[in-house]
Amino acid sequence: MFDILDSVENWLSDKRSIALATVTKTWGSAPRREGSKMAVTDDLAMIGSVSGGCVEGAVVEEAQAAMKDGKPRLLKFGVADDTAWEVGLTCGGRIHVYVEPLDKMWWETVAKAAKSDSLLTTITILEGDSAGEKVLFNSHNEAIYKTNGLGDSQVNEFQVIAQNTLKSGQMTVNDSEIMVDVIAPRPHLIIIGGVHVAIPLTNIAQEMGFRVSLIDPRRAFATEERFPDANAILHTYPDKALPELGLDKNTFLAVLTHDPKIDDKALITALPSDVPYIGVLSSSRTHEKRSKRLLEAGISQELIDRLHTPIGIDLGSRTPEEIALGIMAQIVAVRNGVKR
Question: Which of 43, 307, 310, 339 has the most CB atoms around its CB within 10 Å?
Fold first, then answer.
């Protein structure tokens, strides 16, 4: 969703006709997961992807047809092993893609809520006389948008499904095929310290779909000129800024200042939280001194052992960009459950 949001909004501002394609089912080795989207205009502008290349052409043709006849369609592709190999997959399989003329009111509602990183769930009927009917639920499982063809009983039924479904995907309910499309809040990278490495780290993280906040009480380091695309810049100490930003299982912390007056406050605040990743830029000798200070501050050795330090995967990095790449690689590994 986030990878196509800006382009779609620009196209809507220009009053262009748009069709939306969404992956509803796919094979295990597919490059695009369920819920991935591609938008197409009537003059063949495209953004996003549904397959990595092997079915894109056919989807674009169906998108053009959908804009002309105003009808949605569920496309079912069988991908042969040879074709799959050509686009970088290890094996073939099946992929289902739902193509529809863009529901502008639904999109505007989704886009507004998504920008605030709210959990959203859309349930859409994919086939039959009711194909295209949909309802959108917010993070409180309240219906905030629905098409006119859905009755209250269907909305209530879909509400239960939305409440109990955490992943996007196609399912069968009462002999009807539906798509549960879950848009989760973006992962949140909080960087402590507006040092030089933080600049490429911010860029790489945002390219990978993270929102990025920067904390540094030293105003000269954390400026909008140095970090024009940061989602938030806070000039207070981490013990005050981190609770304001929030620390949860969707938050990742990179501590980079090398200044104990700043770094220690961040670690003392974050280590007892549910944050799954805390990386610290330091040498082994520096970490020994830090561990002693943290123990004296009441942080247990078990919590201290959670720290990833020296921060990042060892790539033999020499430049800030390479260091940033190693940090993001480690964060992604942790997020995906890979031990590093």
Answer: 307
